[in-house]
Amino acid sequence: MGVKNLLKCLKLxxxxxxxLSHQMVIIDAMYWVHRFKYAYNGDDEVFLNCFxxxxxxxxxxxxxxxxxxxxxxxxxxxxxxxxxVKSQNNQKxxxxxxDQNYFIKLLQHFLEQQNIDFYTAEDEADxxxxxxxxxxxxxxxxxxxxxxxxxxxxxxxxxxKTGNCDLYLKNxxxxxxxxKYIKINKLEKFIEMCVLSGxxxxxxxxxxxxxxxxxxxxxxxxxLKTQPEETIITYNKILKYYKQNV
Length: 246
Description:
CATH architecture of the largest domain: 3-Layer(aba) Sandwich
Number of helices: 11
Strand content: 15-25%
Number of strands: 10
Strand order of the largest sheet: 2-8-7-6-3-4-5
Radius of gyration: 20 Å
């Protein structure tokens, strides 16, 4: 999720949530819905138990942020299929028939029952996650777009059973480029480099993070001069999206 291969290149601080004093965790709900839905076997409690365990290891106030964009077109088909599975006690079914909306509603109902705060963004959750974060909060996700949006105190690769994670701190995180680690806050053209290396919105063919770094260091304008108009428009559009939301 997010910038292609960025997470693999980051030098992050390995820690455990029990060592962190932040009093609140802002959770990228859609990442965890997508991750935990694969545990689903027709029993809602199996899916929800994953969130119960997650909340237990976090052990502090939480706020779940949901994407504003998800389709409802298969909702009736999904719920009918779920009811059929439950009535027949049939454990053999395919997740592709279950719309994401079913899991979203299931989780939101659970959160309401537990008096746990959640919020649905107007559009993408990542922007709202950063807006609602503060110095005393942690962000729980695996979406690297949040780094481009200037998010801080981000827990990546979170082990929901042990609380182990890789912590991103905006002022000290480093990225491996051309064989050496460079502090991200020292990279003037970090956003341009990430957009060029590929995001959720577009993947520019054949460009790795290292290649994107070289292009931006030499001047992105020179590279753009060699590209078709469609590529230029796409690049500028995505770059504008990130910059206007920083």
